[in-house]
């Protein structure tokens, strides 16, 4: 399978995906919009919310084939004519599938975490370093740049193509290793 990244209007990703599916029934392959769940404390109450992992991006999974031939070329005008579309990555003239680290990162959130990345289970070792036992943070330990124990969040730095950005992922602290 090949995965392509489309940049669309931020906070309108789900709307864009519904428009594409309704206006262009010939697009029968899956579109993904990875999200993460966060618990936010507002005025003393905890509010459950979801946010985009990659704000402004959706990912299209097409069949195998030569990159740049019929995969996305065949459907590019359908995507481009739909309201909210900005561009393909790397560019509209150079539509290429995700590869290497970019593909690995996107698949981590699409396949391993499910449609909404939930809460990771972690503990802190004797050196106060975070150790992830399960959840969406698993495998991303090297990308953690900040940990907020009070809020139960880890800020991770993600790189997609030439863009670098950071997001928060929720975690739940389990007991120390010797008590497990």
Task: Provide an overview of this structure.
The structure is a single chain. The chain has 180 residues and is of the alpha+beta class. It has two domains: 113 residues, NusG, N-terminal domain (Alpha-Beta Plaits); 62 residues, no CATH class. It contains three helices and twelve strands; from the N terminus they run βαββββαβαββββββ. A hairpin with a 2-residue loop joins strand 11 and strand 12. The N and C termini lie far apart (40 Å).
CATH C-level class of the largest domain: Alpha Beta
Number of strands: 12
The separation of the N and C termini measures 40 Å
The CATH homologous superfamily of the largest domain corresponds to NusG, N-terminal domain
Low-confidence stretches: none
Instruction: Give the rounded overall mean pLDDT.
Output: 85
How are the SSEs ordered, and which strands pair?
Blueprint: E1 2-8, H1 13-23, E2 31-32, E3 35-42, E4 45-52, E5 57-62, H2 76-81, E6 85-88, H3 100-112, E7 116-117, E8 120-124, E9 130-134, E10 144-148, E11 153-160, E12 163-173
Parallel strand pairs: 3-7, 8-12
Antiparallel strand pairs: 1-5, 1-6, 2-5, 3-4, 8-9, 10-11, 11-12
């Amino acid at each position: 399978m090949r995965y392509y990244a489309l940049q669309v209007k931020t906070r309108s990703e789900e709307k864009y995906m519904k428009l594409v599916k309704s206006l262009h029934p010939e697009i029968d392959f899956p579109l993904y919009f990875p999200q993460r769940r966060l618990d936010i404390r507002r005025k003393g109450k905890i509010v459950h919310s979801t946010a985009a992992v990659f704000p402004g991006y959706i990912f299209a999974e097409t069949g195998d084939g030569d990159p740049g031939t019929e995969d996305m070329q065949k459907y590019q005008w359908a995507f481009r004519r739909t309201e909210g579309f900005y561009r393909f990555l790397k560019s509209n003239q150079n539509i290429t599938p995700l590869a290497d680290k970019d593909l690995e990162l996107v698949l981590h959130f699409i396949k391993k975490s499910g449609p909404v990345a939930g809460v990771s289970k972690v503990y802190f070792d004797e050196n106060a370093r975070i150790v992830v036992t399960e959840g969406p943070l698993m495998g991303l330990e090297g990308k953690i740049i900040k940990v907020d124990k009070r809020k139960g969040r880890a800020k991770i730095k993600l790189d997609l193509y030439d863009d670098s950005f950071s997001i928060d992922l929720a975690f739940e602290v389990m007991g120390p290793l010797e008590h497990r």
